[in-house]
Design goal:
Blueprint (H helix, E strand, L loop, with lengths): L1 H20 L5 H8 L12 H24 L3 E8 L2 E9 L14 E3 L4 H14 L9 H4 L8 H6 L2 H5 L11 H5 L4 H7 L22 H10 L3 H13 L8 H6 L7 E4 L3 E4 L10 H4 L2 E3 H11 L9 H7 L4 E2 L4 H4 L6 E6 L4 E5 L2 E7 L8 E5 L4 E7 L5 H14 L7
Antiparallel strand pairs: 1-2, 1-12, 3-6, 4-5, 7-8, 8-9, 9-10, 10-11, 11-12
Amino acid sequence: MVKLVLKWIFLMSLFLIFSNCNNNPSEADLRLIKEGQSARLINEPDPEEVRMRDLIQQYDTFVAHKFEELDLPGLAYAIVKDGEIVSVRTYGVQQKGKEALIDEHTTFRLASISKGFAATIAGLLVDQGYIGWDDKVTTHLPNFELRTSSHTDSLTIRHTLSHTTGLKEYSGVSLINKDLSCANVLRGLKSAKIEAKPAKVFAYQNAIFSAISEIGRATTNLSYGSLLDSMIFNPLGMEDASSSYKSMMANQNRAIPHVFSSKTGWSSVDIRKKWYNVGPAAGVNASISDMAIWLQAMLGHRPNVIPEKVLSEIFQPHIPINEDSKYYETWAPGLSDAYYGLGWRIFNYKKHKIVYHGGFVRGYRPEIGFCPNDDVGIVFLTNASKNELSTICVHAFFEMYFAPRVSR
């Protein structure tokens, strides 16, 4: 009798062990099936993770092919998804003919991508009570003057950062190229041509856009570089970022600019001091490591440094820029509307909101774009002047990302 009991216990134990080791669906899985949904096996990969992995591979193949085809000197890009840096890639060299490679900490000039930093600095100053978006410029810079007193008196900080000042497009560029200080560049705008009332039309600017540096100095007693360091670079951990020619030249791990000639191909040129004098418009230097962090912050994953209400304001469309099609014609097939916010372009691309900006100074051609709703974005840096890959790199990424999804 005892032997029979022991045998029965042994058989039941084996039954229980094998029952627990099979892949029978759980009660929760059975409930999902009953509701018409598919229950995932425990070890089945997440479809979105698989799709993102395939996309990254597809995009990198595209970049590698174009890099070789165009014989570019160097580039770096980073992709962020759901707050995670899912890809960082670097290609090429800091300078043609030299051995030093581009790496994650090689610094590039950001050119007009710097404008996003300026708008964020303004937003942080608003958040901390130093200024208001609709403050008159003269409230903080009482000696500021334009051609007419009525225009001077009506101009606000919001107008300067949304390119709706009413001044003729690119006013003050000759003053910038003379390497005058930002204060003197602004002073020289007294003779700038006025074409419209503030807030009425979009006309891209660099000189008056940079008024935020002088407004920041007037309200905090800090230079623009110090504001960037204390409000953005240091809190975010952007260790390679800086905002001056001196800082760029002091960094041995820097990408040297290149220009193209049909006779000689890509040739390196000197890093110019020009445009560092208007730091908000074009004065930031950063590595791809820094810019991946910046992309995370712009997608809302560093609210302790950059609050959501700041991002919400600067990403708000302020003025239509559909007539500015020469700049973003690459996007045209899927682009239904385009606006400028504060320091950023806002595209309605295939019914998705894309926040975007590009930049150019001699020998550098950066690009950045992200979709807040999908929590995904890309930043792309090159040490080459205008080239096909830089022109299409962000658009190509979103073409792949929003492509119809093929079920497996």
